[in-house]
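Regression check, BIS(adenosine)-5'-pentaphosphate case 198:
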Amino acid sequence: MFNLVIFGGPGSGKGTQSEKLIDRYGLTHISTGQVLRDEIKAGTELGKIAATYIDHGQLIPDQLMVRILADEIDRLKGDSAGFIFDGFPRTINQAERLTEMLAERGTKVDAVVGLEVPDEELTARLIERGKVSGRADDNAETIGRRLEVYHDTTSPLRDHYIDKGLYHAIPGLGTIDEIFETIKSEIESCPNPPIPNA
Ligand code: AP5
Ligand code: MG
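Current build output:
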């Protein structure tokens, strides 16, 4: 298995680049934000709880989020070639729990791809997307809150993964294809890289 964390601020391109990674390597995508939005759409109890946080740009509590992720891993693992974790971890505690969860399942995080994009660009992308996305958190006020949470709580993970020798910094400005080329060369220079589709 090759397990990849795709990391970066709100609007940095995690979802966009995940689609290209799935196409090339056949990895299994888990976007915790999308899992939560699906629960909200389905009107489940979990969805009702999640909406109270997402609508204000706040993080869902770690304990709940870790349980949701473990369920997704077990639901999807089958004979997966590996996972792309998009939007998880977002706290140091989540990162430690992810390491444990994967170790319990005989695997590990192989690489962290960090999309590095300035705040002004993140805001501009999300405001633009907000015109069509229907996402409750794509409005100026909530975007500002998401950025604050990212800088205060999530960005320390960059150093956490640098210390572990797993972090690959990717300049996140440029075309989607240019950025993907950089990601590809970083991933394919890892030990035991995933095998590209023919
Ligand atoms: P989540 O769904 O993870 O949202 P996010 O991190 O805020 O990021 P986005 O999905 O908005 O952006 P993205 O990086 O995927 O960029 P995209 O490719 O879409 O989380 C949402 C919420 O759920 C959180 O705020 C929290 O409440 C909760 N949550 C989720 N996970 C959690 C966790 N682990 N713990 C606790 N709570 C959690 O691109 C953005 C836009 O830019 C698109 O329009 C795209 O077309 C465009 N774009 C992409 N690349 C480029 C480019 N190179 N140039 C120009 N435009 C581009
Ligand atoms: Mg996304």
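Comparison notes: The first strand starts at residue 4 and ends at 8. Residues 127 and 193 are 36 Å apart (CA to CA). No diff flagged against the previous build.
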